[in-house]
């Protein structure tokens, strides 16, 4: 029914339950951190609060020490023109900033991954529009998740929605399988041809996490830290992310606790 055998892991019920618990904790972490996303706080302070909350709930942060060079934060904090992978530090949030916080707790060996935007105080109409459009684009992608559909239709739907808005879809970073490991197959592109890619099957779990730029779609990586990705033109970027499960009839959004 679903064509050729996929290398994408089909989770069993025990794994699904574990990933659901980790995903719920990820969402609860973002909800908890909202109180600290205010003018005057540093992104390092937010990272410290993330670490405390994660550890208090019996989990560890997947980002801490991940990759090469090792990522130093318990979460990613991406401000304004930072597309993703912003390193927490001494930057002090100010009125009008927009902030993305991306968290991935590991709970009992399972991963949950989610991110969202936070307006810092009063923000511009343009920034508000970018954030809301990005939020909507995530759900346009989620609407494509069901057994028998192809992964490329997620990116196709996102791009079809975004392009008329005058924004651009980042193509250098993508969603991914998640749950048993931090990054699994498949790669979930947010800009893809219609009816392309592997076929979705019940039990697959992955992230959809569109990054939408005000200006050009391209990014540049900070040579000093090897992680921070910025827009090439200095314009704003926004991102939302959910971890989703393909069910027998459609989709279950594992990181949705009503905060989006």
Task: Please outline what is shown here.
The chain has 260 residues and is of the alpha+beta class. It has helices at 13-33, 43-56, 125-142, 152-162, and strands at residues 59-61, 76-79, 82-84, 98-103, 105-107, 110-111, 114-119, 168-169, 175-177, 184-188, 205-208, 211-213, 219-221, 229-231, 237-239, 242-246, 251-253.
Describe this structure in words.
With 260 residues, the chain is an alpha+beta fold. It has a single domain, classed as Creatine Amidinohydrolase. Helices cover 25% and strands 23% of the residues. It has four helices and 17 strands. The protein has helices spanning 13-33, 43-56, 125-142, 152-162, and strands at residues 59-61, 76-79, 82-84, 98-103, 105-107, 110-111, 114-119, 168-169, 175-177, 184-188, 205-208, 211-213, 219-221, 229-231, 237-239, 242-246, 251-253. The strands form six sheets. A three-stranded antiparallel beta sheet has the order 1-5-6. Helix 1 (13-33) crosses helix 2 and helix 3 (125-142) runs antiparallel to helix 4 (152-162). The radius of gyration is 17 Å and the shape is globular. Residues 1-5 have low confidence and may be disordered.
Topology, element by element:
Layout: H1 13-33, H2 43-56, E1 59-61, E2 76-79, E3 82-84, E4 98-103, E5 105-107, E6 110-111, E7 114-119, H3 125-142, H4 152-162, E8 168-169, E9 175-177, E10 184-188, E11 205-208, E12 211-213, E13 219-221, E14 229-231, E15 237-239, E16 242-246, E17 251-253
Antiparallel strand pairs: 1-5, 2-4, 3-14, 4-7, 5-6, 8-12, 9-10, 11-16, 12-15, 13-14, 16-17
